Amino acid sequence: MVCKKIFTLSTLAVITNFSSPALAFNSLTVFGDSLSDTGNNGRWIWNNNQNKLYDEKLAAQYGIKLTPSDQGGSNYAAGGATAVPTLNSSDNTHNQVQQWLSQTGGKADKNGLYIHWVGGNDLAAASTQPALARSIATSSAVSASAQIGALLGAGAGLVVVPTVPDISATPFLLESVISAGFGPAAASAIQAAFISLNAAQTPDLASRQQAIQQALRVASSTISNNPQIQQSITEQLIAAYDTAAAQSSMLTDYYNAVQEKALEQHGGNIARVDINSLFKEILAAPQAFGLSNSAGMACPPGVASTDCTTSTSGFSRTQDYLFSDHFHPGPQVHNIMAQYIQSIIAAPVQVSRLNQGIQEMVRGSRATLDSRYEQLRDHGYSPGTLGIFGGYGGSYRPHNDNNESSNGGENTNSLTLGADYQVNDNILLGALIAGSLDKQRADSNFHYDTQGFQAALFSHLRLGQTWLDGDVHYLAANFTDIRRDITLGKLARSEEGKTDGKFWGARLTAGYDFTVTNWLTMGPMFQYIWDYSQVDGYREKSNSSTSMRFGSQNGHSQVGSTGWRFNTHIGGINPWTRVNYRHQFGDDVYSANGGLKSTNLGFSRTGEKQDKDWLVFAIGADMPLSETVSAFAAMSQTGGLSSGNQTSYNIGISAKF
Questions:
Q1: Homologous superfamily of 27-329
Q2: Which InterPro entries did the record assign (predicted)?
């Protein structure tokens, strides 16, 4: 009779995404078991003096040094740890969190990143007592959630809480089944089984299952040469393996569900990371991620990865394995998990660019309107004159501030058509409509296209040498092809979505013209802009482990400006130039919230801080073409923006009747 044997399991590793530069956290603090342990009890990865765990990769991404707590560092994770002291009094996350609280005076870094990942060893212990398995799993999941609540209560800014991956998928399950069935002869049977398993290609779940069954047949052949006995033993082993796998998988899902519900009750800024779903995707198609074998292991049976190197006798170099040893992932998987976690952490920062992008959409129409204002200031119209104008406005701004939403560019384009009417000698009233088509590349891994329709009312008031311009704008935007590009090992994946947005804005500009000569005027100008934007929440289209949902966003910008304007009349052309100093009185940061579609938990992050002060240099000209028709053109350049200066331009034509 083949019996099930209990198996101890640490947790599976976390992840980061190195595809974009980092918006810095001040610190990284880690609680967990062997999958996060960087030296308190060991380092469970082969060639551990060279290969890094997921949390070390994450720390490097954010420019943080992560060292074990035993060496005075902020990584409290310890191999073999459970969530509760009753299962492991020496190493558990309850004690880890309490130790951290005592060392910090109960205060967390609100700008720090925290990881709390535990549960594998708790599930292993639960599986030894089938009658109490669910109650043990419940106690551990609830306790782990309470510890996370303590971190948040102490002021932790963001806590990453990965799900426990399916413990039934580890090679240790196969070892346990063979050990239980073969007794003293198990060692040679396990050795033979893993020689078979390591030689197999497992491009999908079916081939993986076949490889496991074949390994069990090979194990059976070490006991007897009799085909009938071999077949009988094989059938028992397969049945025992399937039963143990099903029970372990159900227990894993139960633990994750209980923890999820408990975390919902605590609330807080929790980035729930679905390692379990990611792990299942890797098992289903390992080759897509750069792995060739998802069932075997690189280290020989009986050798833990913390003691394993490529020089260890029996180390397998023949394939790219998911596992280092019988329950710890290999370096490639740590890298995949790191990329995965980082992509989730970065997503709200990337998506916060939508709110800023909608504010950029009015720049083209405003630039065209500004050129029209310059025409009106150059030469007034007689009462009753009707004017029409139209033009193209565009701008480009690179992002180069080395943040998670950087290394891209904004490219805005708009067509504007307007009409105005000179009511009397002093007042002109007008309206315009505009269409926008913008392509925004916020960073190398996030982009979106935007279509917008604008409507605006404007007026121009002239009292002697004093002038006043005012306009109000409304814009309805449609964000299409919102795309996050994610790299997971060799897999390149895109998550896509779409949403809508709105914009309301108003400007008031005043100035005074001093006549210097008959061809030159100049004077001060003052401006204040009120802009409000809203972007609706949306859900990405697919249902993969990386698919996310995002909440609605609101933005508020108030920019004050003071400057000096020069206007000349040279022949038939009227060139002008101006320089303005601008200050942002409104939002200088934009936030967005999100979470995986597979969880109800969500978290918020704030994007890069915007510049508060900058300069704008502009030059343009009004060029009469006939008695009734004039052309205009202008170009402006910002200066002093750390995130990338913006170049704007417009060209158009006007006529009067």
A1: SGNH hydrolase (3.40.50.1110)
A2: Autotransporte_beta, Autotransporte_beta_dom_sf, GDSL, GDSL_lipolytic_enzyme, Lipase_autotranspt_EstA, SGNH_hydro_sf
Of the candidates 412, 492, 440, 338, the one whose C-alpha atom is nearest the C-alpha of residue 22 is 338
Q: Which amino acid is at 389?
A: F
* Cα–Cα distance for residue pair 584/579, rounded to 1 Å: 17
* Other CB atoms within 10 Å distance of the CB of residue 220: 26
Q: Hey, is 558 helix, strand or coil?
A: strand
Tell which residue, 146, 130, 159, 118, has the closest CA to residue 34: 118
* The pair of three-digit structure tokens given for residue 277, joined into one six-digit string: 């779903």
Report whether 208 contacts 283 (CB < 8 A). yes
Regions of the chain with pLDDT less than 50? 1-22, 401-406
Q: How far is CA 4 from CA 177, 178, 224, 648, in A?
A: 6, 9, 21, 71
3-state secondary structure of 32: strand
Torsion angle defined by CA atoms of residues 214, 217, 218 and 221, in that order, rounded to the nearest 10 degrees: -160
User: Residue type for 394, please?
Assistant: G
Could you list the active site residues? 34, 325, 328
DSSP state of 275: H
pLDDT of 408: 59
Q: Where are the domains of the chain?
A: 27-329, 355-656
Tokens of 647: 């170049």
Structure tokens, 587? 């939002």
> Which pLDDT score, from 0 to 100, does residue 184 have?
82
Q: What spatial distance separates the first Cα and last Cα of the chain, rounded to whole Å?
A: 101
Sheet of 113-117, strands arranged across: 28-32, 113-117, 158-162, 270-273
| Dist CA 491 CA 485 (whole Å) | 10
How much is the pLDDT for 378? Answer: 77
Question: Is-same-fold flag (27-329; 355-656)?
Answer: no
Element (DSSP H or E) covering residue 263: helix 227-266
Measured in residues, the chain has a length of: 657
Contact 508, 528 (CB under 8 A): yes
Classify domain 355-656 at the CATH topology level: Lipocalin (2.40.128)
Token pair 């109000």 in the structure block, residue: 472
